[in-house]
Amino acid sequence: MVGYLVVSRPFFELDNPKYTHSTQSELMEDYYRSGRMLLNLAMAVGRLVLAGRELTRLAGYTARVTELQNVLKVCALPMHLTISNTKKTFFY
User: Fold this and answer.
1) 18 by DSSP, 3-state: which?
2) What's the distance, Cα to Cα, between the start and end of the chain in Å?
3) For residue 88, what is the DSSP state?
4) Cα-flanking dihedrals φ and ψ of residue 35, to 5°?
5) pTM (2 d.p.)
6) By CB distance 3.0 to 4.6 Å, which of 30, 34, 43, 44 could disulfide with 7?
7) Tens digits of residue pLDDT in 23-77
8) Whole-angstrom distance, CA of residue 60 vs CA of residue 35
9) What is the rounded distance in angstroms from the CA atom of residue 41 to the CA atom of residue 45?
């Protein structure tokens, strides 16, 4: 909503040099184009937010896979090494 107010502000200023000699159809065309660009910008920001969420999910999955790999490495050690080091965290 605020974006449309910002886009429409130059059209309401009577002393704006860009629009002093423009016809009404040129003004409407420019206003429409500005509104479409604003809408495309909002859609692009939405896609960026969704991509950020997906990257966060991916980071969670990779952390879980890394933790699983570390547990599997500990399980592959001989039994006497894992028993003697139970109080230590054994990550590579």
Assistant:
1) coil
2) 53
3) S
4) -65, -40
5) 0.57
6) 34
7) 888 888 888 888 888 889 889 999 999 999 999 999 999 999 999 998 888 888 7
8) 38
9) 6
